[in-house]
Specification:
The structure holds 2 protein chains of 2 kinds. Chain A is 31% helix and 16% strand. By secondary structure, chain A is an alpha/beta fold. In chain A, 57% of the residues are buried. Chain B has 7 helices and 20 strands. The chains are: A alpha/beta, B alpha+beta.
Chain lengths: 301, 419
Amino acid sequence: MQQYTLNHLEELESEAIYVLREVFAQFERPVILFSGGKDSILVSHLARKAFYPAKIPFQFLHIDTGHNFPETIAFRDKLIKELGVNLIVGSVQDSIQEGRVLEEKGLNASRNILQTTTLLDTIEKFEIDCAIGGGRRDEEKSRAKERFFSHRDEFGQWDPKNQRPELWNIFNGRKQMGEHFRVFPISNWTEMDVWQYIMEEKIEIPSLYFSHHREVVERHGTFLPHSEFLNLKDGEKIVKKQIRFRTLGDITITGGVESSAATLEEIVAEVAATRVTERGDRADDKRSETAMEDRKKEGYF
Amino acid sequence: MTKTANTELLRFTTAGSVDDGKSTLIGRLLYDSKSIFEDQLESVRNTSVQRGLDHIELGLLTDGLKDEREQGITIDVAYRYFATPRRKFIIADTPGHTQYTRNMVTGASTANLALILIDARKGVIEQTCRHSIIASLLQIPHLILCVNKMDLVDYSEEVYNRVVSEFRSFASKLDIKDLRFIPISALHGDNVVNKSDNMPWYQGPSLLYNLENIHIGSDENLIDCRFPVQTVIRPNLPEFPDYRAYAGRIDGGIFKPGDQVTILPSGFQTAIKSIDTYDGQVKKAFPTMSVAMQLEDDYDVSRGDMIVRTNNQPEPTQDIDFMMCWLHKNPPRPNAKYLVRQTTNEVKGIIKKIHYKMDIHTLHRIEDDLTINMNDILRVKIRTTHPLLIDPYRKNRHTGSLILIDQATNETVAAGMII
């Protein structure tokens, strides 16, 4: 007897494609938020599938903190060219120069929080009515409450206690002028699903995800990459380690883990055995118990 | 896509109050399947200590928002994930109080299975009835009733049998296709992952075995072919000069190239030329695949239209009877017009008649109080400006469901299951 069922990755893929097509149908100026990380690469891949053989009908938006891994930027530019889409870059450096935001000072200074202002300014400037993100519910506890179609008020804020109920697959993207939506097509994917899918689909990802040797500083149990933007604490030493990154963000807050996983198969095996969440190496989430929720309410990714 | 990971996806919903052991049960399923990470456990441990608890409150794992953690209550549906080698699971964890009926309905809307916990000492209570009625109303195909805290009744078969027969007599009024019972102790792990030695009289499998093996392949409607068009794909590229395909997700039945189809509402007849995906053309498309269909003839087809088999069509109708769950804190305004969304269609509609309100603890019809408040479930009739292509919700959960949106606020105010 033939089985008419999808396996879990096919089901998740189909769900994400459905969501991306709903975005196209319900919004006028949607963008894909592209960070160069695996989740936004996955979303781009799914968008390619959703509209094939047509080109992806969305622009891409990168919020550039200026503190990048050079590998990420090179990867971004190559992919944009290959997809034939338009890239908008919102620059945190510009926001600082224009006096819109103040640079953080001190040891753990980062531009993570500053991104929110640049993101919202860019959304307003280009009249973007929907920003598609690679956020997943398994990443972080406040994200577990996120909708597929998540409403943002005219200040770009998220009101987690007053979200629209989302039933079946009927998505309500209606809004007033000046408001916008964040849409998360891979809400239901776990880190494991993402890696398995990348492996099965042979999706190209930045080399940073694979094991490599790098100069790092150990801080809060993770290895922060040495770069011109990192402030060293007394007693901290730069050491060389064989590491890889589980997530990619701003270079000042993205910690690596010691790993020898050099292929996708080895990464999947490593993820299956690991006992710490992938954001456990993100300094931005460690600031407080509700760091993510607080930033999200303000309009963060 | 290649099929190396051949595991199915099961979505289930749980509902419960603070004391019935739901959090403990979910915590155990996540923990035993190694889906809780050390840093998450550490964070929960810290919060538990700060609150002066002498145990690790696993419920904190699902309470994600600041207010929830502070007040120790669950406000909203939380989604949790775990996997075993056989299946991947998505839990929609919903709070159980009356005022959260809307969240329960939301969590139930996409679930294949509902997990309901009963405290063995208390038996069937008001809340059990409410959860079961919602599971039945939302047509969740499978329901597992866990009789929990068996350790507190000396693992007594007699107590278990009494609870089961109590529930069975109540459930006879409901529309539940697949009903199972399991005696468990979430706290001690009896019959959760492994069969318990404490209850040799129980012959059935453990909860996890059930979750891993329940047949979900027939949960979708594979008979009545329904393909609502989401959008049109026209590349306008030199390589694909005349390409035109209709993108959407299969909501019912099995479509094949060559099938005679009718486009609704226009009624034009044609045949399927091909069913396309990025990974190539497929010979069969079934729920819930996202595909793009090319048709043999060029007709004007757009979002909101539905492609169906010519010999099996849904009824276009403007007068729709449905069970409505009111989701918004404000009651409807008199004679308000709403946007009605069903599949990929949107029309305007007005509530014409309220037949009765349902008592969600007893299923009784209330006919002398027809006010509409948040969390109420009522049978109503709406009249729409244009016909919708509907099926009864019992036959198809995709084409039989709708939402109402308030035009003034753009908020989703009601959910409906078409009768």
